[in-house]
Specification:
The protein is an alpha+beta fold and about 300 residues long. It has a single domain (about 5-295), classed as Ribosomal Protein S5, domain 2, CATH 3.30.230. The chain has helices at about 50-65, 85-105, 110-115, 160-170, 175-195, 195-215, 220-230, 255-265; strands at about 5-20, 25-40, 45, 70-75, 130-135, 140-145, 150-155, 235, 245-250, 270-280, 285, 295. Strands 1, 2, 3, 4, 5, 6, 11 and 12 form an eight-stranded mixed sheet that branches. Strands 8-9-7-10 form a four-stranded antiparallel sheet. Strand 5 and strand 6 (about 140-145) form a beta hairpin.
Length: about 300
């Protein structure tokens, strides 16, 4: 590795939708412009990676037939853990992308997804666009351009153990819930296919409130009341995290969104304001030494 390269993967503002369809859990990704990142520089060694990401590197090395990684790979930016920002999925994607790049044969998003779901349920924030997918099998339902939305993020505090939360969620599933979320999935994919930001936010809100009915401690109804009174057009949440997010159209001024976020904070003072971000197309972003940016890997 003779050049310095930075690779980034976006975090998420929870999920646009989560549920069950055809007996399988699904999610619709919600990538935002807040990133985890690694650097590749001349040398050797891996720095800043957790256990799962190191396991992902081993899978990637075996897939490319590498005994050693011919570069120094350092994770320089992490996403908050336990908040519902897809921190683990982003780390896995970065680990595989870094190994693939050093091998000279970058991994496709499909290859990364297959490796990731062999380790844990995966949020496809590293896939192109907005991805509707089964998080446990890796089966793709569809991919769509991100609609023009921005969001104010709030944190309820604490951390959530994703694995334990999903075990509890599965115990509460019913046939009626599956039928309801199958309908919401059809509505969400239709809205995304048409680039309809308003409808996307509306369907996300309905899904978030349904999930909030299952887990009242998430405060979904209280948050939506505050967000709607503050001018937001919709909401979502981290279905297995601590984030609550309010949507505004992207063409609304930053000052308007900041005022709305401040109003939500005044109505729910126990929440911590977590910033304002845009909904973006997911992907793996490679930044070359000249500072130019580009999206790398297709999903399929």
């Amino acid at each position: 590795m003779s050049k310095n390269i930075r690779i980034r993967v976006p975090g998420s503002g929870g999920e646009l939708l989560q549920g069950v369809a055809n007996g399988k859990p699904f999610l619709v990704t919600c990538p935002i412009d807040r990133f985890a990142a690694v650097t590749l520089t001349p040398g050797s060694g891996m720095f800043g990676f957790g256990k799962k990401a190191r396991q992902m590197m081993q899978l990637a090395r075996r897939a490319r037939g590498l005994e050693n990684i011919p570069a120094r790979i350092r994770q320089i930016r992490h996403l908050p853990v336990g908040k519902g920002m897809a921190s683990s999925s982003a780390d896995l994607a970065l680990a595989a992308a870094a190994v693939g790049l050093t091998s000279g044969i970058p991994f496709s998003g499909r290859e990364i997804l297959d490796m990731a779901v062999s380790l844990e349920p995966t949020d496809g924030v590293f896939l192109r666009g907005i991805a509707a997918m089964e998080q446990t099998t890796g089966r793709m339902i569809g991919q769509y351009p991100a609609p023009p939305l921005q969001m104010a993020l709030f944190d309820r505090g604490g951390r959530v153990n994703t694995r334990l939360f999903h075990e509890q969620w599965r115990r509460l599933l019913t046939h009626d819930y599956e039928r309801y979320t199958e309908r919401l999935l059809r509505q969400m994919t239709s809205a995304l296919r048409g680039g309809d930001a308003i409808r996307t936010a509306q369907v996300a809100t309905e899904g978030a409130l349904l999930h909030g009915d299952m887990f009242p401690f998430l405060q979904a109804k209280l948050f939506w009341r505050a967000a709607e009174k503050s001018g937001a057009i919709g909401m979502t949440l981290a279905h297995s995290g601590t984030l609550l997010c309010a949507f505004w159209p992207l063409d609304v001024s930053g000052e308007t969104v900041r005022r709305g976020a401040a109003d939500i904070g005044a109505r729910m003072p126990a929440l911590r304001f977590f910033g304002i971000n845009r909904l973006i197309d997911g992907g793996i972003f490679y930044d070359n030494p000249a500072g130019k940016e580009g999206i790398g890997i297709e999903a399929l």
